[in-house]
Amino acid sequence: MAKEIVLTGVTTTGTPHLGNYVGAIQPAIEASQQESAESFFFLADYHALIKCHDPARVHESAQQVAATWLACGLDTSRVTFYRQSDIPEITELSWILTCMTAKGLMNRAHAYKAAVQDNLDDGDADPDRGIMMGLFSYPILMAADILMFNAQKVPVGKDQTQHLEMARDIAGKFNHVYGNTFNMPEAVVNESGMILKGLDGRKMSKSYDNTIPLFDTEKKFRKAINKIVTNSLEPGEPKDPDTCTVFELYSAFANEAEIAEMRQRYLDGIAWGEAKKITFEHLNEHLAPKREVYNELMSDPAMIDAELAKGAEKARQQAGAFLDKIRSKVGIKKFS
Ligand code: TRP
């Protein structure tokens, strides 16, 4: 049976945190181990330029994200793992698709509309003030990422499902004009996927500045867990596990028996200091070996480059051959 093509990308603008690990990295790595899937994972570094104009940050983040995926056990002999910018075919395809994309379709993109709304709310005379074409055209680049490898399943967050609809629209238009070329990709939104709360109790997210980095030093990791906001109940007073960020964090890394035991300790009035200490120790035990690999990779980036070069070679072989066909379909080819 033909394998199902699964593809997903990570925009490289931040430092991976616990929320990314539990919600995306771990489930994606697990899924990639299934025999039925052929997986493509990539660093969406050209997407990073949409949000971040700090070259040092763009560069550092890409290295951190790559090192994180490798340290967490991504098997690059099974998964094609590459950097978007190493595959120039993707940006070429992006232009071809741009010529198949209605401007009106892009006008309806959530991210663009939100930026326009911000301008209107500020009473700006120009609703497009400060909005770059990168933000406006971003769904086309994402469509190119996906269609370049004819992906069928695309695991993404809920906020990305509109982009998958747009990728299908664009693919459909191309197929209609030039003949059947692209699969219709589908979003896979992991509804049961865990969404962790951050230090302040809101969803853990870089935009709220409430994250716990996945691979900080052990000392900083302990400190971060101690900073999680709890209520003022004293030791001995029963506590509600179901509204507690610390309990949620512990649970994300624990088995059923461990969770049940911790739940009981909350009801018995565990002290916050104690709950945090147990949580730190439990998570640290799980993460320490991975942290060690991460640190090795960060201090020897040539190892990361070598992995990405392998992935790029595999990816370009496929992308190059497919792009030749696509170019030919639109009439861009040799004369003889
Ligand atoms: N836009 C995605 C995000 O912000 C990242 C991404 C870029 C992506 N290209 C992709 C995800 C292609 C899936 C497929 O999460």
Question: Can you identify the CATH class of the largest domain?
Answer: Alpha Beta
CATH architecture of the largest domain: 3-Layer(aba) Sandwich
Q: How would you name the CATH homologous superfamily of the largest domain?
A: HUPs
Number of alpha- plus pi-helical segments: 13
Which topology of the largest domain does CATH recognise? Rossmann fold
Q: Catalogue the unreliable spans.
A: none
Largest sheet: 3 strands, parallel
Q: What multimeric state do the chains show?
A: single chain
Quick check: average pLDDT? 95
Give the termini separation. 39 Å
How are the strands ordered across the major sheet? 1-2-3
How many runs of DSSP E, i.e. beta strands? 5
Q: Sum up the overall morphology in one term.
A: globular
Rg result: 22 Å
Strand content: 5-15%
The helical percent reads 55-70%
Order of helices and strands: EHEHHEHHHHEHEHHHHH
What does this structure look like?
The chain has two domains: 4-194 and 301-330, Rossmann fold (3-Layer(aba) Sandwich); 215-296, Orthogonal Bundle (Tyrosyl-Transfer RNA Synthetase), CATH 1.10.240.10. Strand 4, helix 8 (161-178) and strand 5 (186-189) form a beta-alpha-beta unit. The protein has 336 residues and is mainly alpha-helical. The protein has a three-stranded parallel sheet with strand order 1-2-3. The longest helix has 30 residues, at 301-330. The chain contains 13 helices and five strands. The two termini are 39 Å apart. Bound molecules: tryptophan. Tryptophan (TRP) is lined by residues 7-9, 11, 44, 47, 142, 145-146, 154, 156-157, 160.
